[in-house]
Amino acid sequence: MEKTLRLNFAHLPTPIEELPNLSNALNGPRILVKRDDQTGLAFGGNKTRKLEFLIAEAQEQGADTLISGGALQSNHCRQTAAAAARYGFECKLVLTGEKPQRASANLLLDQLFGAEITTVEDRAFRDEVLQKTFDDALAAGKKPYLVPYGGSSPTGALGYAFAMEELMKQLSGGFRSFQNFGSLERGIDWIVFGTSSGGTHAGLVLGQRLFGFKGKVLGISIDEPEEELKSHVSDLASRASEKLGGRIQFSRNDVLATENYCRAGYGVFGEGERETIHLFAKHEGLLLDPVYTGRTAAGMIDLIRKGFFKKDETILFWHTGGQPALFADKYSQDVVR
Ligand SMILES: Cc1ncc(COP(=O)(O)O)c(C=O)c1O
């Protein structure tokens, strides 16, 4: 495997904890959680692992400005803005949504990190505005580096290929980062996590192959149709493998995903998300976010209730962060009514 450029600012390995009260309440299988909401950079989350590779690439290319885009409450943009501040880049963000009168949550943090923000109301124009922001920076003599939506380039996906290596090391005996934890003789049968721009998913699929994870890796779609997700993730995983020195060809059949929990649309907060956030909070004192992990865990709980997982199986819920959005004006009223 070729050595790839990487910085080390994430707090790794992230802990694994057991959620016995939730398992009991659901009369379901054993549930563990991998705490990537604790990766350390500006409230953490899954993007921090990707940014270790993306920022290294930006530095290698001699960039001085990071440009990225996402939703108004993007966790990816918050973590990108924080990494830019820490590593001395300017940061320009193109955020989709109606600009609120008062910034809250992730948007407020973007401002705190000094990012220059352009808002686009109509999503149809976001690519165009992002490109223009890039071109304008070039014309102004800057050296911009485009961090793709969600950090999901082949380079960014490597963060999750190596996250799988980290998990395998934890499983094979390191156990120091396990808390409140019994034995794990059977290993982990399922990894369940939220998938959207596909970088986390592609990295885990690649890591599964490289590091020999024997369980299944199930992505719960936040906003993408299943078939599109499978094509995109398999292609991204194949291209990410090239970064490590030899192409592994993945096909759609290598990717497990369900679109059953995203029909309401991106960021639409519903009963499933609300019930799930309350269940995790009440039984385990663990916080989920309204857009990603709330929806993902709602899907996982629905599958548990339907008997999709066997009672003697072990599920690892990979927590990808996002909790600052709990405090967004857009969601806070709805989370606790
Ligand atoms: C909290 C959280 N979970 C999951 C995801 C989805 O990850 P990916 O974009 O790699 O599919 C995101 C993406 O923004 C996120 O912010």
Defining key terms:
11 strands, binds pyridoxal-5'-phosphate, 11 helices, alpha/beta, 2 domains, 16% strand, Rossmann fold
DSSP helix fraction: 40-55%
- How far is the first residue's CA from the last residue's CA? 51 Å
Strand fraction equals 15-25%
What top-tier CATH class of the largest domain fits best? Alpha Beta
What name does CATH use for the topology of the largest domain? Rossmann fold
Q: Can you offer a commentary on this structure?
A:
- By secondary structure, the chain is α/β, with parallel strands linked by helices.
- The protein has two domains: 16-45 and 152-335, Rossmann fold; 47-150, Rossmann fold (3-Layer(aba) Sandwich).
- 42% of the residues lie in helices and 16% in strands.
- The chain has helices at residues 20-26, 47-60, 75-87, 105-112, 126-139, 154-174, 199-211, 226-242, 271-284, 293-305, 329-335, and strands at residues 16-18, 30-35, 65-71, 90-96, 116-120, 144-146, 178-179, 190-195, 216-221, 256-258, 314-319.
- The strands form two sheets. The protein has a seven-stranded mixed β-sheet, with helices on both faces. Strands 5-4-3-6 form a four-stranded parallel β-sheet, with helices on both faces.
- α3 (75-87) links the parallel β3 (65-71) and β4 (90-96).
- The longest helix is centred in the middle third of the chain and has 21 residues, at 154-174.
- The radius of gyration is 19 Å and the shape is globular.
- The termini are far apart.
- 52% of the residues are buried.
- The mean pLDDT is 95.
- The structure holds pyridoxal-5'-phosphate.
